[in-house]
Amino acid sequence: MASTITKFFRAFGTICQISVSSDMDPAITEDVKNAVMNLDKKLSPITEESETARLGAKAGYSCVHVSRDTYKLFELCKKAAEETNGIFNIANGPAAHLWEQVIEGCSMPSDLALFQAKHLINADDIILETRDNDYLVGLKHEGQSVNLRGVIRGYCMDMAADLLIERGCREALLNFDGLYRSIGTTKTVGIRDAFSPVDVPMGTVDLEDGMSAVSCCIYNQYRETKGRLFHPIINGRTGLPADTDLAAVTLIGKNATELDICAYTAICLGMEESLSLLKAHKQNAIFVTRDGLLYSTFDFSPLYTYVTQLQM
Fold first, then answer.
1. Are the C-beta atoms of 86 and 123 separated by less than 8 Å?
2. How far apart are CA 21 and CA 167, in angstroms?
3. What is the pLDDT of residues 119-178, one digit of tens each?
4. Positive/negative CA dihedral, 124, 127, 132, 135
5. 150 to each of 7, 73, 156, 171, 216, how far by Cα in Å?
6. Angle between helices 271-280 and 256-269 (to 10 degrees)
7. Cα gap 85→271, rounded to integer Å
8. Disulfide: which of 37, 40, 110, 248 matches 217 by Cβ 3.0-4.6 Å?
């Protein structure tokens, strides 16, 4: 895109950027921004009137009415939990809350608190019902809640891209804090250095039309204490922060929602165990291990280090 119209805004706790070709009506970026902000309002866990907050408040008592989009998202997440044997599990809210407090500087949770949280994080406890044109979602037990980290940014990006295409946008680039989607053209985007305290790339990849790049990293938010690293990427089976050989993973593919889910899951599984999942979803990967080694499943050339090629 030689000349672009760019819109910046904040949603889901991150900076979102939408760039479209200058021959488009500038109102299109405002429309997409409003759609994303509306989704943020519906799904934000810190807004009392949001659908996810109402779901947690009614957990163990009754289902809540949600929009069709929210219902479809929860339906997709339940299928992902089944596919990953519970590693990816949006019902991990009680455990995620404990570790978020640790990251913010609070003391370690007690064994009792961990035990109670673990017994509340079961994706099978998510209730999905449809009645005529009504969509209902519920949680079986009081104290349960959902955590959409690992899916919401990708889902939001897919929605924004679909809206742009529907409005006739021929060329665009979406950047939601390091998650990218290219529309109508090939764009070169930077892959963030997992170990750098500032936003610098370790290399670049070319995203063809319709392709997305989604990254997940344990160092975006973390606290290290007594030799242990605590971060908000939660293993949905254990209720604990993921503890594998991976520090970060970047996935390349078509569907940003699937990429987001698989990147989160890969951090929890580790490099070797995640390869079969990524192969099944036809996704390419760049892995960064905790000791700083790089591996990729395609021809990726980092700027300043060596990368080992993997076979899938």
1. yes
2. 13
3. 999 999 999 999 888 999 999 999 999 999 999 999 999 999 999 999 999 899 999 988
4. negative
5. 24, 12, 12, 27, 8
6. 160
7. 17
8. 248
